[in-house]
Amino acid sequence: MMQSMTGFGKAETTFEDKKITLEIRSLNSKNLDLNTRLPSFYKEMEAEFRKKIIGSLNRGKVDLALFYEANTAESASEINIPVVQAYMKQLASFDLEESEKLKIAIRLPDTLKTERESISATEKKAVLSLADEVLQKIMSFRQQEGESLQQDILERIAKIGQFLETVKTVESQRINKVRERLQTSLSELEAKVDENRFEQELIYYLEKFDVTEEKVRLENHLSYFSEIANTGHAQGKKLGFVAQEIGREINTIGSKANDAAMQKIVVQMKDELEKIKEQLLNVL
């Protein structure tokens, strides 16, 4: 079953004097590209967050953000003056009163610091449990998106298969058209030809336009694509490779077509394949 690389998860918990919120969102990427945004108080947990995400999400551009709101009435906190000053410097270019700038700056991350220097084992356990909950949500999101992607992609693969059947029908008519066109041209020239030699040359000529091998390979690739899509997960890259092979056979059929009706079918197959490739960029 396919899984999408797009997903979002959010959860929150309360621990002692703080309300902790964790968000994880992911988009498509060739590899795992992880960015974390953590308050300085939780920086020591970054490696543990990374380990969990690598073990769960496999691939994608992943952004993790953790926020907390402390109950200042119960916690011993003080203003982090260097951080506030840095924010005020960044806000200097805005046309605002100094008091308004200060209000904005004081609400930004890390403007308050507590007396504690490290996270307790109990709090760390609570935060990691929160991460598990968020990851479960994002994986569920990816699964649902993947089901929609799979349905759309396999419908397009089936369409290419239908177009291939039409190619088989058109091809037999195409050979007859080529034969008739050559015979008509010879008749107009009023040239006398050896019928046996003509048939030999015609067979040699038509062999150049024969797409039997391409049809067989394309049919096999389509079948293999569907087989991969319906088994396992994290098959996006493999499906991408098979899609390239499908494109190669379609292009070869197009180059050998020498027939307007067949060229039209090839264009339709290419259109479906391009849409499949776009969708595959988001498949895990």
How does this model look, in words?
It contains eight helices and six strands; from the N terminus they run βββαββααβααααα. It is elongated, with a radius of gyration of 32 Å. The termini are close together. It has a four-stranded mixed β-sheet. The protein has helices at 46-57, 81-90, 98-106, 121-189, 195-207, 212-229, 236-257, 260-280; strands at 7-15, 18-27, 32-37, 60-70, 77-79, 112-114. The protein is α+β, with helices and mostly antiparallel strands and 284 residues long. Helix content is 61%, strand content 15%. The mean pLDDT is 87.
How does the SSE layout of this entry go?
Layout: E1 7-15, E2 18-27, E3 32-37, H1 46-57, E4 60-70, E5 77-79, H2 81-90, H3 98-106, E6 112-114, H4 121-189, H5 195-207, H6 212-229, H7 236-257, H8 260-280
Parallel strand pairs: 3-4
Antiparallel strand pairs: 1-2, 2-4, 5-6
Helix pairs in contact: 1-4, 2-3, 4-6, 4-8, 6-7, 7-8
Characterize this entry briefly.
With 284 residues, this protein is of the alpha+beta class. 61% of the residues lie in helices and 15% in strands.
Keywords:
single chain; 284 residues; alpha+beta; 4-stranded mixed sheet; two-stranded antiparallel sheet; 8 helices
- Cα end-to-end separation: 10 Å
What's the shape?
elongated
**How much helical structure, as a percent, in the residues?**
55-70%
What is Rg? 32 Å
Strand composition percent: 5-15%
Largest sheet: spatial strand order: 1-2-4-3
The helix/strand series, from N terminus to C terminus, equals EEEHEEHHEHHHHH
